[in-house]
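Bumping with the actual sequence this time:
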Amino acid sequence: VQRLDPDYAPTRLTLAGTLERIGLPEAALVEYAAVADGPYRFTADIEQGWLLVQTDRADAATALAERLVSETGAREARILLADIFRGQGRWAEAVGLYEQVIAERAEAGEPGDWRYHSLAAECLHDVNDRLAAEAHYLAALDLAPRQSTLLNNLGYSWIDQGVNLDEGMKMIKRAVEQRPDDGYIVDSLGWAY
């Protein structure tokens, strides 16, 4: 197919993904950028954005994601931009985008996704808005009650604040039971004791 039509978008997209997986990010970026306008252009842009982030080109990734959000308003573009903002310490902007995605999913009657609540909670924790962070952690736990990272993060937050100590300790212990080899979680238990 590549010989017959070197610009065939699905082939370029597959080639870019392969180059990325085998550790050739520069070549992958070239292929993503070469995907022609059409039904595969958006996917190529999103993948290119993630790769720009991974190769420490946050400014280029931000510009690309902002353009995609402006042009398409697509959920995937807002998630990309939110993740970029989170990595840049632009937590309030990231939270706003995660909350848009959460609201959009709810309005569409789609099942909730605990990850967006968790990411919003982490950002809110970083700006010291612990009540809003707690609300997102609790919403995430409603969706994924056995998720060890959520149990650990909320339990740790409560113990750190000196509130809900018994419940916080129970959460951390449940997290350790699920992931006894996770040093981050085991460290929380030691700190809590």
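The tokens above came from a reply further down the thread. The radius of gyration is 20 Å.
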